[in-house]
Design a protein that fits this description.
The chain is α/β, with parallel strands linked by helices and 314 residues long. Helices cover 32% and strands 16% of the residues. The strands form two sheets. The chain has a seven-stranded parallel sheet with strand order 8-7-6-9-10-11-12, covered by helices on one side. A five-stranded parallel sheet has the order 2-1-3-4-5, covered by helices on one side. Strand 9 (192-195), helix 9 (209-214) and strand 10 form a beta-alpha-beta unit. Helix 5 crosses helix 7.
């Protein structure tokens, strides 16, 4: 019997469902890999951060790691690749909550909701400036499943969407697609620069001070991907110098964001505690992908969903 260790926390109803649906699999539910002592584990279902190189060396029977998140940058990918271990993730399940989060922040800023809320607390009745989305441009870094959904929603508001990826290939939800090599040509046109890029060797620190100097002074920069896209000091300086109007940050170099970070107190910065992907349907959607891949695992068909290329990191 195949042994599957699940350290991804799920409710009892989902545990029972897995056991009933896959009687040929022995499921062990634990808080950590160490708790299970799983030398004979064949399948590991995890958020990813608990799988270190040292622990991986102890899992001698491991054949498949199902990561219950989209990011895999904290995992020992090189060693997993060397051992030929299958790695899959749940890429795509975040697209609805993340796209709605991005849209919520944009609409909030455009319709001056933070000012309205602040004035209510002070019992101030005063008109304020506001703007609309129609006719604006959004440059979306990482136009995959999440970026495509962001683009689709923005298009409904009359926003012209430009997808920016490594290849420059055509993506859903984009009016135009460009490669990273052409990003500097399009930054001066964008009203919104939205990143949902993963953390890979190709994307780490891809944005520098020179990129922010090319942006409109009225532009809004939004990072919902990973904190190593750009040095935080670069964002701080861009905001202080008025090179951009506002930054909305859901991810940071260090999380939680240190109390001494100037970003906390900057009026033109929105600090979000890495919550854009949260949804009451997260576990359910993650398990749907796991169930599909588990059925593939038990069959002769080896066409798994969301396979990670360990050498690329995505």
């Amino acid at each position: 019997m195949t042994n599957a260790l699940v350290t991804f926390p799920i409710k009892e109803q989902f545990r029972q469902s897995l056991s009933e649906q896959f009687p040929q699999i022995h499921f062990d539910f634990a808080n950590t890999i160490e708790d299970a002592g799983g030398k004979e584990v064949t399948i590991l279902v995890t958020y990813g951060s608990d799988l270190t190189e040292e622990i991986l060396d102890q899992l001698t029977d491991l054949k498949w790691v199902m990561v219950a998140s989209a990011g895999v940058d904290k995992m020992p990918l090189e060693k997993l690749g060397e051992r030929g271990i299958l790695v899959t993730n749940v890429s795509g399940i975040h697209k609805t909550p993340m796209a709605e989060s991005v849209l919520a922040h944009i609409l909030s800023l455009n319709r001056a909701l933070p000012i309205i809320q602040a004035q209510q607390k002070q019992k101030v009745w005063e008109k304020m400036k506001s703007s609309e989305l129609r006719g604006s441009k959004a440059l979306i870094l990482g136009p995959g499943a999440i970026g495509g959904e962001i683009g689709r929603l923005l298009q409904a508001f009359g926003v012209y969407t430009i997808g920016c990826s490594r290849s420059g290939g055509v993506h859903n939800g984009m009016d135009e697609d460009i490669s990273f090599a052409h990003i500097q040509e399009y930054l001066p046109e964008a009203d919104y620069i939205i990143s949902v890029l993963p953390s890979t060797q190709e994307t780490r620190w891809i944005l520098e001070r020179s990129h922010f100097q090319l942006m409109k002074k009225s532009a809004v920069f939004m990072n919902f991907g990973r904190g190593d896209l750009v040095k935080e000091q670069v964002i701080v300086e861009a905001l202080q110098q008025g090179e951009i109007a506002h930054a909305v940050l859901d991810v940071f170099q260090q999380e939680p964001l240190p109390l001494e970070s100037p970003l906390w107190e900057m009026e033109n910065c929105t600090v979000s505690p890495h919550v854009s992907a949260l949804s009451a349907k997260y576990v359910e959607r993650a398990l749907e992908i796991f169930n599909e891949n588990l059925q593939v695992w038990l069959s002769d068909n080896k066409e798994f969903k969301n396979v990670i290329e360990t050498e690329r990191g995505y």
